[in-house]
Amino acid sequence: xxxxxxxxxxxxxxxxxxxxxxxxxxxxxxxxxxxxxxxxxxxxxxxxxxxxxxxxxxxxxxxxxxxxxxxxxxxxxxxxxxxxxxxxxxxxxxxxxxxxxxxxxxxxxxxxxxxxxxxxxxxxxxxxxxxxxxxxxxxxxxxxxxxxxxxxxxxxxxxxxxxxxxxxxxxxxxxxxxxxxxxxxxxxxxxxxxxxxxxxxxxxxxxxxxxxxxxxxxxxxxxxxxxxxxxxxxxxxxxxxxxxxxxxxxxxxxxxxxxxxxxxxxxxxxxxxxxxxxxxxxxxxxxxxxxxxxxxxxxxxxxxxxxxxxxxxxxxxxxxxxxxxxx
Amino acid sequence: xxxxxxxxxxxxxxxxxxxxxxxxxxxxxxxxxxxxxxxxxxxxxxxxxxxxxxxxxxxxxxxxxxxxxxxxxxxxxxxxxxxxxxxxxxxxxxxxxxxxxxxxxxxxxxxxxxxxxxxxxxxxxxxxxxxxxxxxxxxxxxxxxxxxxxxxxxxxxxxxxxxxxxxxxxxxxxxxxxxxxxxxxxxxxxxxxxxxxxxxxxxxxxxxxxxxxxxxxxxxxxxxxxxxxxxxxxxxxxxxxxxxxxxxxxxxxxxxxxxxxxxxxxxxxxxxxxxxxxxxxxxxxxxxxxxxxxxxxxxxxxxxxxxxxxxxxxxxxxxxxxxxxxx
Lengths: 327, 327
Fold this sequence. Notes:
Two copies of one chain form a homodimer. Chain A is of the alpha/beta class. Chain A has a single domain (about 5-325), classed as Ribokinase (UDP-N-acetylmuramoyl-L-alanine:D-glutamate ligase, 3-Layer(aba) Sandwich). The first copy, chain A, is about 40% helix and about 20% strand. The first copy, chain A, is globular. The model of chain A has no long low-confidence stretch (mean pLDDT about 95).
């Protein structure tokens, strides 16, 4: 058996269907630009039937992060539910092929593997339209205690709060992490997601989270404050480590006794999908290798820059090689 | 109902699974570099399990051509068999979304939608490993006489000779074309394919084909000659129009009273997949619009240059816009 993964990621297992559209397309389909919009099967079919020719790539926020950690040469595992279908096979192949341990059994009944139609506008913004499908079939039984116990860090998506079975599975994973001394990390995922679950997320961050990821909009929304500085002040009293991204302004990493600002890595922005996921991959890889916060932040910036330089949310080159060359 | 398509394309309906590999990967899996290798389900699974993370895009030679014609603003239809599954839905979506008429009913029994694992080496060569799946479920009943009758040109792949049901369907389509005065066009597809069916292809070119597409290796193999000039001399006695590609040397278009050489369009070569398919798209679009051979050849060069500048065998920009800008 393979050595246990140091960073165990948990999220919605999704195959992305990616196309470039103009702003009029978003308006016509009444899509919230920049957001992750949940869609039912009917709305999904309706958008797809009007969507330009597309490209399919494995995605899913925490899946992208796990793949990124593995691409750095790190040790990553993944928990997420696909169906036993063609897109489920694609998802499994892609995450295992990059070196991530992925053992969650596929669902054999119920909805097909989740898809997200990702609409990329000329400003490189991405608007996601996610049909959760088989993701809602996950259960507490998919969380393997030995895997959680063996990991240094359990990393979960805020997106998992969107359905009861996913949330139950995450909460069990977090409890197991606490039982075994595994650190718990959460990404707030999306500011609209924070709007949906603000109180729960606040409690969670207070009581169960050691390492928090968020972008500026998400953290302002969480604490309902006006400025980034106010959010930082709040965070210092609530988590051990926070890593906050600010797009082209780079990121701020925070611990009890340190506050580090890391610049964004220069690149050409083609598609912002996966920027936060790959930033988290770099930071988590660094933490799992015992690096200091500044180095972690640089890994994050580098990985985010790579993924936004092309269409799709998985790194197209070895992040290990890229780090050796650029850092 | 939509106006009938001017160019009706017929081929194996395939979703491509594309990844970059090194030459050692081809050697390990004993793959013939640059060829279309047919694989059974077991070999397909074996290669896939060892393949790096991939990207999925609709493909299939004549499907790429039909999509290219539509991207030029031309009128194209497609006949090909997918299964009623996720990848079949992807194929149907992509070809219809670019404006191709595609009405072939999906198979509801038998093998899944065809896939081709396309391995792109650092020299930008592509090596294809195709599991034909549902393509072998096509039958003469999938050829609609009214569609063939209404078209100006019927365009078919040499690849269709690989199984008996596909061949039977093509021959019926060709007979209907002759009955209704629709021109017949064939691409030889692949020099290994020509090796497999040389005598049949020679008879076919002689008796049923009006417009022939081939690259240099294919046409040398068809007539078992040593030089391109000898092949040209042979062709003049056998077909009304031939369009022959020579990679970076451009192409030669031939009719009873004309021989035109067209330069390749300058580009950066990332992945040669689809070069011949998109060249054919440009030429067929030109012919269907009544353009002279030189203009047809230029459309072909432009489309081929676009498709080899990125991963995947479908144009990523509007060829109509590109032609307006560049020609």
